Amino acid sequence: MSNSPLYYAKILLFGEYGIISNSNALSIPFSSFYGSFGFITKGAETPEQIESNRHLAEYAKYLQTLEINDEFFTKFDFERLNRHIIEGLYFNSSIPQGFGVGSSGALVAAVYDTYAINKIDPDTTLSQENLPLLKKQLAIMESYFHGKSSGMDPLICYLKIPVLLSSSNNLNPIQLPESGNSSAAIFLINSGVPGKTQSMVSIFMEKMKNEGFRRLLKNQFIKYNDACIDAFLKGEIKVFFKNLKKLSSWVLTHFTPMIPENLVELWEKGLATNEYYLKLCGSGGGGFVLGFAPDYEKAYKTLSPYNPQIIFRL
């Protein structure tokens, strides 16, 4: 598909799990990873292209069952989509699967953008009023991959701009603070193993059956999460890192199964030295984790074996 648009990965800076429980969430596009549609060249196909084409065929069948059963759901040009699949359509993506950076979200965004009829267009028809509708449509589409979706991942991949979701369920496209020249930085660390979103969410939902845990989540986790977002957007670096430490420590205590085993010691060391703090990037269990360092160059001495990747300078 010539000149096919790129659909970037996303990073949920804040809001993992809390998003299910009415916390604020802040998600940003991440252009280091991306995907786009292409067509298989006969005689030069790769196993990955063939597998992607097969998955698209299965996904198209799923979307057709949704359209039949859901009056709310957006309509698709299935004649064109199915013809393209027969012709060798595949999704060429550098976004690692199961790493918490929106591999399924980018694919959903691409299908919606290319094949939805009367789509909500970011450049022409998007408004504050129909943004929740767009998020809901994309959530329904992504439910194929995870069983349940908030719609935030494909929304960021589709809009390609940062979005703040407030606890009152208001969606607001926002400007991030200017990337500064300070020594502080936000970075990614690769655990080296994919996470399993559904099993991690199942663990969380089981915990949520406990009233004591629900109270802790509301009075501590969500409080720290929302304070981090507020301080980050205001550029209040000291307040930001103060709440980050509380958030990182809380996750270590209460979300232990979600932290990749090979990064637990690194997580603990950050809290002990205050050189950096780690938090989940998505549902956890593997994939990437997010890191925040008040002095990145100083923290790098400890972090260098893990090949951190800077995503934002504060």
From TrEMBL:
Q: Which residues form the GHMP kinase N-terminal domain?
A: 89-159
SUPFAM superfamilies found in the cross-reference section: GHMP Kinase, C-terminal domain (SSF55060), Ribosomal protein S5 domain 2-like (SSF54211)
Pathway(s) served: Isoprenoid biosynthesis; isopentenyl diphosphate biosynthesis via mevalonate pathway; isopentenyl diphosphate from (R)-mevalonate: step 1/3
Look up keyword Oxidoreductase and say if it applies: no
What does the entry list under GO cellular component?
Answer: cytosol
Any one Pfam family here would be GHMP_kinases_N
Sorted alphabetically, which keywords does the UniProt record give? ATP-binding, Cytoplasm, Kinase, Lipid biosynthesis, Lipid metabolism, Magnesium, Nucleotide-binding, Transferase
Q: What is this protein called?
A: Mevalonate kinase
Species per Swiss-Prot/TrEMBL record: Thermaurantimonas aggregans
